[in-house]
Every structure is written in structure tokens, then in C-alpha cells.
Amino acid sequence: MGRILYTWHDETFELTSGTIDWKRSSYWDSIPGLGKRYAAVSAKIGTREFLWCFAEATQHEYFETNKNVEWIILVDMGDILGYVETDAWEDFLRRNPSRDDWFHGSCADLKDYIVIVRFPLSHEQLISKTIYDIQSQIKPTVRERIWFR
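Above: the chain sequence. Below: its structure as C-alpha cells.
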């Protein structure tokens, strides 16, 4: 059984090929030490190749407003590498680099968690890709929606 998840990226990023370049993150220049924080995630899950995903479509609103492509994906539970508690991660990221309680191997309620998923995905895992024109964070306009199934 799989889980439907949501992940946001810019228009040039493809989910089914390539490698992850942490320096392409829109946060790279604005958050000092981000590379070390990403390396900490990598150390927990054993790979540099992973996606940040959400269990609910609305969870991105605080984090991902600078990315205009929403992917809806279906992943097997074995492709989920772990869970990051959002408040603990923000503290680790911005204030407390010695904090170590932000990562979990499992969790029951995904509302306050980011889901870490193995990258790249297969084409069979793609449900849809929606490209938005974001003039307003409150009501973005759909430019194009592609269904894969």
C-alpha cells in the first residue's frame, strides 16, 4: 500500500531523473550552514538523494511559496526514508545546530512532519504536476495541470 504525498519544486526540476544538487535550493544563500543541516539529514537516511514531501496539500504554504510546481506522488512505504518534525527542524536549522530530535523513523500523525522520500522517483509514482502562477500566496492561479494516470 502506498501513500499520496505532495512535493514542490521549480519548473526545471524533474522527479524521475538526475541528482540532487543542494546548492540549487532556494534557501541555500539565505540560511547559513544549510549544507551542514542537509548533510545531517543525509547521515540519518544514508543517501544524499531525497525529496522533501508533505502529507497534506496545504502544508507547503509556509515553506514552499517560492516554488511554483506542485507534484502529487504515490510512494510505497519502503520509499519513505524518515520523517522530520517541522518545529524541531526549524529550531535546528536556524538557532540550535546541536539539536538532534528533529528526525524520526516513523510517526503516526503526519500533520506536523515533512516526509523524506527516496529520489529519483519512477514514472509510475507520478500522479500529477500542477504549474502555478503565484502572484498571491493566498490564491495562486493554475497555469497548467498534467495528469499521469
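Helices lie at 34-45, 60-63, 86-94.
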